[in-house]
Design goal:
The complex is a heterodimer of chains A (about 190) and B (about 240).
Chain A lengths: L5 H9 L3 H23 L2 H18 L10 H19 L16 H6 L12 H12 L3 H13 L3 H8 L3 H20 L1
Chain B lengths: L14 H11 L4 H13 L1 H14 L15 H10 L10 H11 L4 H13 L12 E7 L4 E8 L4 E8 L7 E8 L5 E6 L4 E5 L7 E8 L12 E6 L1 E2 H6 L1
Antiparallel strand pairs in B: 1-2, 1-9, 2-3, 3-6, 4-5, 4-7, 7-8
Helix pairs in contact in B: 1-3, 2-3
The chains are: A mainly alpha (about 190), B alpha+beta (about 240).
Chain lengths: ~190, ~240
């Protein structure tokens, strides 16, 4: 049985289709659990967050515009935004997640299309360009961008990890983002 | 640029674009992040910058390894959305309250506003924009009148405030759609005189505008008073009258 495309399920959910909602949960929950566990690092927090994320998906399905991007990317953006709100509200509580620097480089996982790599997330050509553009950054900076994005680390946490002042880290990341944009536009 | 202790200068850039980039990366301080999030709800150009950055960085999502979800969670989510037995129509108590406001006549002013709407919606549309469905939302207080026009082929809803003031300092107008399920869904904030929203709608759905704290309802349903509500009706039928 072929899974119905995520975009089609979201469109049905916008029409209040509960069966589509269950089907979307079956397809997307594992990935969203991966997002929330990586960012929050705590199973019970992840469970509360996952409930909230699926409630938002139900409520906002009508706002999804398939012309503007992939369904899975839209779902992950909702999960990341919620996790980031929670992380930033945590004040100075020590985090348990992502305490170790990137053991697995997501871009290496992209470059090696083995099992577990979701090739449907982005078109192959887009992946290739992103890998190439990250390759133009200094390794420490590329690693900081990935840790910020994937783990939700703050400037403070990244500065401590890399042993640089916070302002330096802020400049590293801003410069890297602008360079990525420039590179991807070529 | 190899000296990590020496500050670097940034190349020329748009401050909004960089703000959107840092919002998506997730590194903004909490207050800046909240402000950016609220702005994205009402500022379509800024929201588009955020979407562009989400698309640019989306390949990194491959770095999230899927994990088994907790088994009991889906029933819990469904219970929160749809009620315990899964068949109850109002999924949340507050949604039920909104239904009461809209259709039960909780407020005399609202009943009067709805009675007025039934007439107004039959007036011919004023500007010659193509609209398949339209609704006019009028509140008694402050002579607040909104007109909503939906273009089916574009899937676009244009909401114009024809008269009445901006929401007071610290408050926002928020637009909702309610279909047969009775569950209100937010379509966003109405801060400008004209707002364009992409949304799949259909004839017979009801649009409602509530007065909310700045940034919109903290709940998934209206938290403040419903100022106006109107059904979406065929524009052709409306202009014949």
């Amino acid at each position: 049985m072929t899974d119905e495309p995520i975009e089609a399920l979201i469109a049905r959910i916008a029409g209040q289709d509960r069966a589509a909602f269950r089907a979307l949960y079956a397809q997307a929950a594992p990935k969203l659990v991966g997002v929330l566990m990586r960012m929050l690092g705590d199973r019970s927090e992840m469970e509360d967050a996952l409930q909230e994320v699926f409630i938002r998906i139900w409520q906002r399905a009508a706002q999804f515009d398939p012309g503007r991007g992939q369904g899975m990317s839209w779902l992950i953006a909702i999960a990341r935004n919620h996790a980031l709100d929670l992380l930033r509200a945590r004040a100075s509580r020590p985090r348990t997640s992502d305490s170790a620097p990137d053991e697995t480089d997501p871009l290496e996982r992209l470059a090696d299309p083995g099992p577990g790599v979701e090739s449907e997330l982005v078109a192959r050509a887009d992946m290739r360009r992103v890998i190439d553009c990250f390759g133009t950054l200094e390794p420490a900076r590329a690693s900081a961008v990935k840790a910020a994005y994937l783990g939700g680390l703050s400037y403070q946490e990244l500065a401590e990890r890399h042993g640089v002042p916070v302002n330096t880290m802020r400049t590293w990341l801003r410069r890297s983002l602008l360079r990525l944009k420039e590179c991807l536009a070529q | 640029m190899t000296d990590p202790d020496r500050p670097e200068t940034l190349p020329p850039h748009s401050p909004d674009d960089l703000l959107a980039a840092e919002f998506v990366l997730g590194t903004l301080d909490p207050d800046v992040r909240r402000a950016a999030s609220r702005r994205a709800e009402v500022d379509g150009a800024f929201a588009a910058l955020i979407r562009d950055w989400e698309a640019r960085l989306a390949p990194l999502n491959a770095g999230y390894a899927p994990q088994d979800p907790p088994e009991a969670l889906l029933p819990q989510i469904e219970a929160r959305l749809f009620g315990r037995d899964g068949t109850a129509q109002p999924p949340a108590r507050r949604a039920g309250r909104l239904r009461g406001w809209l259709f039960g006549g909780a407020s005399a002013a609202l009943v009067a506003a709805l009675a007025l709407l039934a007439v107004l919606v039959w007036l011919p549309p004023q500007p010659p924009l193509p609209a398949d469905l339209r609704g006019e939302l009028r509140a008694e207080a402050d002579a607040l009148i909104f007109e909503a026009r939906w273009n089916a082929s574009a899937g676009v809803l244009d909401v114009a405030r024809l008269s009445g003031p901006d929401a007071a300092e610290g408050q926002d107008y928020e637009l909702w759609v309610i279909d047969d399920s009775g569950v209100p869904r937010s379509l966003g904030l109405l801060r400008e005189a004209a707002t364009r929203i992409t949304a799949p709608l259909a004839e017979g759905m009801t649009l409602a505008i509530s007065l909310e704290p700045a940034g919109g309802s903290p709940d998934p349903v209206p938290s403040g008073p419903v100022l106006a509500a109107a059904p979406l009706m065929s524009a052709a039928a409306a202009s014949e009258g």
